[in-house]
Amino acid sequence: MDVNKIVGRIKKDTNNVSDITYRIKYVNKKKLYIIYNEALTSSDKISDFIMRSLDYIDNKYDSNIDLINVILNEISNFKIKTINTYQDICYYLNYGFTIILIDGYSKYLVLETKRNLARGISTPTTENSVRGALDSFVEDYQTNIGLIRRRIKSNDLWFNNIEVGRYTKTIVSVIYINGICNNNLVKRVNNLINRIDIDGIIDSGTIKNLIQKENKSVFPTILSTERPDKVCQYLLEGKVIIMVDTCPFCLILPADFNDFFVNSEDNFGNSINISLTRIVRYVAFFISMITPSIYIAVTTFNYEMLPTDLLVNIAAQRDNVPFSAFFEALIMMASFEILRESDLRKPSFASSALSIVGALILGEAAVNAGLVSPIMIIVIAITSISALVFSELEMINGLRWYRLLFMIGAAFLGIFGVVLVFIYFIIKFSSLLSFGIPYSSPFSPTDIAGIKNSFIKFPTKMLDKRRKYLTNNRVKLRDSE
Amino acid sequence: MKKILLVIIILFITGCNYRELNDIAVVTAISVDRDKDGYKTIVQVINPTKEQDSTSSGEPDFITYTSTGKTLQESFRKVMLESPRKIYGSQMQLLIIGEELARDGIGDILDFFFRDPEIRFNFNVVVEKKNSDNKAIKTLTVLDNLSSSNIMDSIKNASNYIGNSIDVTFEDLMNMYLYDNLEIVLPSIYATGNDNYNNDSNLSSTSNYSKVIVSNLSIFKDDKLQGYLTFNESIGYNFITDNIKDTLVSFECDNGRYLVSEIINNNSDIETDVIGRKIIVTIHGNASINENNCDYNLKESSEIETINKMVNNKIEELVSNSANSIRNKYNSDIFGFRDLFYKKDYKEYNNIKSVWYEDVFNDIEVEVKSDIKLVEKGNIVGGIHDQ
Fold it and tell me: What is the ipTM of this complex?
């Protein structure tokens, strides 16, 4: 195709947007179009490498040379490629490459001149750890891959890159370790991602919702993290990572219930101490789920469950409260959720105002005004604090629904209702699968290797096997003694 | 859609009563006695505001509602005429049965408490003596703000450290009542003091206040109160039924002074000889010397053995005496001898079942063997008198 026609077509297709620059240059009396997208490219690179090299070629060679081969050979740009279709031109143009069209050739040159649009590596913001690596993923895909490669220096670290999104053309990468990871799982994930036909992927969360059965459960069946060390740990366990360009959060799958209770720094601590921490996390989960409902049940139906002194104590506190226990709990739950939501969204300068409002108005003043009883504040406080032990936001949000369900059960049927909802919870929970792995996996289909690192963490020397549901290559640690 | 509808319907046809805590009156103790036209009940209800805030003076910790009725349920319902809240019985800790009612028979009131689904069976049951005039439940006390827990704790202490009382829950009572081979034994209490037992002035006096005192055991036959045991009989009964946790044995020596020994870690074994009509009670355990004003030289092992023998003799005498005197006075098988016979030899039991109280019970020979070992002498080795 004629060069001028191609330029005309690009201009027509892009409605001649201002950020695409067309530069005409004559080299050895041949007309060259240098096309690049100003927003994506670094003009330094273009002037330093491409323009200078072209000038050099112009001076050095005669006019009757095979210009395209000379450029391929002489140009000082490192990444260079020849293409021959119009679609490729558009593709590379949108990736921040510079295109060189030479009059009379049906092959075109693309040269990498990407501008660095990513921020630097910083500390993780959502998953704090006291001990452990302090780097976190950024929006740039290459940087993220680098952070993983730096930790796993093996040829067996394999990537499947899939382009998803009709408009965004985002790179979605399936990362796994060949030989550890179950091939069927990789195939399955690849198929699921290939099947996605969507106009755009902006965040890994979209992928997550598209590949898991989103409405089956409120609990997440995929972990997401921004910590490269956590990703590498799970890669070595035989799990699959999905990384999305432009998103600093990776997806780890499959994930079972226990994975949400495991923190990456747990691996570095003394197993006896970590075991206690794990138990605390499990207790916190159940406290967060059922405490308000137990409170409602024992103050409206099952008074006989309380010791007399405690009953009298609670009765005295509730004496002036005009609302029913359920409504009271609902008010406080709602206020806390609003407070938490606004705390997440607000800029940091509003934090002191918010804490004063939250602590004084919701706590002190509400009690003094007789709207809620002090014990209700304690119940909501312990509930909310317990929920915050999880770093996964989805877990906290899922917990809320069950908390509400438990409260409704308690308000209608007392402890019996709580038990009914608990049965419902167990049924839902144990029927859940995460990519073929039972969600309740280390416990319910018993897996000794998994239980060793669940609510009790065994010493690292004894954690010598991988989970049998994840991989066939199970030996993790060989005893050297 | 049908499923959701079903769930909603289920939610609204619940059987339990939804009641907020503000609508219930928490009952901790009930006192029942005979009235001329039925029952007189006194219900003790906690005042939660006072319990929470001890500074709010003027209000008592609890209030009592008195009402009468032909039936128990009727008299409890009448409390509602007075009380703004519904009576709630699950937290009940204590049932006090008046002596008059107990003498008439307690069988009729047990049905109500046994039938009511709200009431738990683990509350304590006591008999209140006639002369205290149902004041025990209303008496304010300093250390325990509820009279019910005051009485319960006193009974527990008496049975744990003195041995003249036992802790009887409603469950135990029902067991004794429903089982043919056992007779009912209940602890007893009485209130004493002035007329200010139910107001604040009872709390501001250090000595002359009204109080509730734990007395000895009361003994029933069928469901009627027969009388009260003496202190020694109570201890003897508790030795036979293995209810003694700790008790004191004291005896006079030649010089007119006393030696006191404490029995600890004891347990009693009972052997039954059905044909020979004999019960052998063996008491094992340890003892310590708590007070010695006698002339014994405790450094000598032979002297200690003498004391040990005296302790054992004293216990044997006490237990066999009380077994005989209880049988003579009341002719009520509170020890469960009939049960022992029944378990040991069913055939012979069937023969003597019908004539148990006439021919057998009083003729049973109770042999007591005491095997208490003196193990402790306290901090001083000898006595302070022989230094």
Answer: 0.76
